[in-house]
Every structure is written in structure tokens, then in C-alpha cells.
Design goal:
Blueprint lengths: L7 H35 L7 H5 L4 H10 L6 H8 L2
Amino acid sequence: MRRMGVSQFETKTLERGRQEGVAQGLKTGLLEALELGLELRFGKSALGQMDELSRIESVETLKRVKDALTTVASPAELRSIYAS
């Protein structure tokens, strides 16, 4: 995917930036889903966990937390998934 007049370094830098942007967008979407899920499942009081969740850098961890949201019995049980 080499563009005319663009160096290999520039191409790699642009690709890395695109990948980082996609990852950040995915993280943002997961956090929004978690916020909605927490509120619907456990009420507004569970939204205090969002501070902790927003500090998680791993998209994979956020996906695991999102998937577990439908089966855990409490916010504390959910916390055990990402605090281990």
C-alpha cells in the first residue's frame, strides 16, 4: 500500500496511527456498552465502577468484562474478572 511520494516510514507511521485509532474507538465503544449494561443490570449505584473500568487499557479485558456482565450476580463479582 505504498503511495506515490510517501516514504516507507510515513506509510508505517500512518498505519500505526490508524490501528491505534481503531483500538481507541473500540475501547470507547466497550466502555459505553459497559456503562449502559451496569446501569441496566445493577442500577445507577453500580456506575461507580466506571472509574475503574476506564483505567483498563486492554481491549480484550474489557471484552471479557462485557461478556460476563450478563451472567454475574453482582458488581463485586464483575470486579473479580478484571481485578485479578
